[in-house]
Amino acid sequence: MTTIYLVRHAEAEGNLYRIAHGHYNSCITDDRGCRQIRALAERFRDVPVDAVYASDLIRTRTTAQSIYLPKGLELHPDPAFREICMGEWEEHCWYELLRKYPQSHHDFNHRLDRWQVPGSETARQVLDRYLPALRRVARQHDGQTVAIFSHGAAMRIVLGTLQGLSLLEIGDTPFGDNTSVARLEVEGDDIRVLYRDDNSHLVQAGLSTLAKQKWWRQKGVQEMGQLYAPLTEEERQQLGVPTGGEGVAVRFVDELIGAYQLLPRPEEGVGEIGWYGLLPQWQGRDQGIQPLGQIIQRCRHMGLLRLRLRCGDARQRSFWAKLGFYPVEGDVMEKNITPRVLDAHIPL
Q: What is the pLDDT of residues 67-88, one digit of tens each?
């Protein structure tokens, strides 16, 4: 018999910024994501593990540090354990997808038997690559314990199937938190789910991503959210955004709530945030973080792998520091947005 711990990756950019990331190679978040990895390492500190696998995407390979580094094991990347490919949905914010494609958005969450968009995988295609890989790993490590790091939607599909549910019935199953753990027992071709979606190590440490968000609690998973569009001259003047660069309006549903200004500096490989703010009545309402995800994606597409801003206010510098910005000189802060495996600072 082989024991397999199936573990979802820690909080990544798509989770924090509410963007659809399937095969998009996003990073783990600098603050809560890395702390979740350390909490996971503590959970598995005294659990014997003989081998560690992960999808070949950055967010799982980063999370896998929690087990393979302290135990001195090799990491085996395997694309069979990737997230479902979201095709033309990749890199679009979830609320935009809800607005444009309400039926497909509903199907993704509740009718996986019929969900498919141009360029995407189907749930059945995920199963066709994932389940044979699970059994292959179990055969290669018969009598041992293995940890496999994977992704939320793929795990929901796979775990539900292993519990005997149809793809239609899987639409009624819960969403797993970041770093949630499932335990499987494999005997021959038989795979049993002993438990799933266990995030107790996060709850104890106050690090649950889902506890900080509301989308999964909404009826039909129809969250309200942000939309982005080029800033009009009238909006620029209303908000006090300087001229130049790329100005983007931030709306909550249809209401203008703020904006940002991006000043590309290609000669330096830097995207400078010239202006970033919300209207006073929208400050302190958990709307200030998501626009950064749009900036990061835009800069990566332009080949700009650092962000820069000026911030002299101590409270605001703390806000930016939690998002991965570090002091450079004077009031200048920068953030490395190169897609990479972050050092989660796991105690060894």
A: 999 999 999 999 999 999 999 9
Instruction: Report whether 231 contacts 219 (CB < 8 A).
Output: no
Which residue's entry shows tokens 């549910």? 165
CATH at residue 136 = 3.40.50.1240
**Rounded distance between C-alpha atoms, residue 206 and residue 20, angstroms:** 25
Q: What is the pLDDT of residues 295-327, one digit of tens each?
A: 999 999 999 999 999 998 988 999 999 999 999
**Which structural domain range is residue 83 located in?**
2-221
Separation in Å, CA 213 to CA 16, 103, 174, 207: 9, 23, 15, 12
Burial class, 132, CB count within 10 angstroms (exposed 0-12 / middle 13-18 / buried 19+):
exposed
Residue located via tokens 């620029």 = 236
* Model pTM above 0.70: yes
117 within some domain: yes
Q: Are residues 264 and 280 in the same domain?
A: yes
Token pair in block for residue 37: 């990895």
Written as one letter, the residue type at 312 is G
Residue 14, SS3 per DSSP: helix
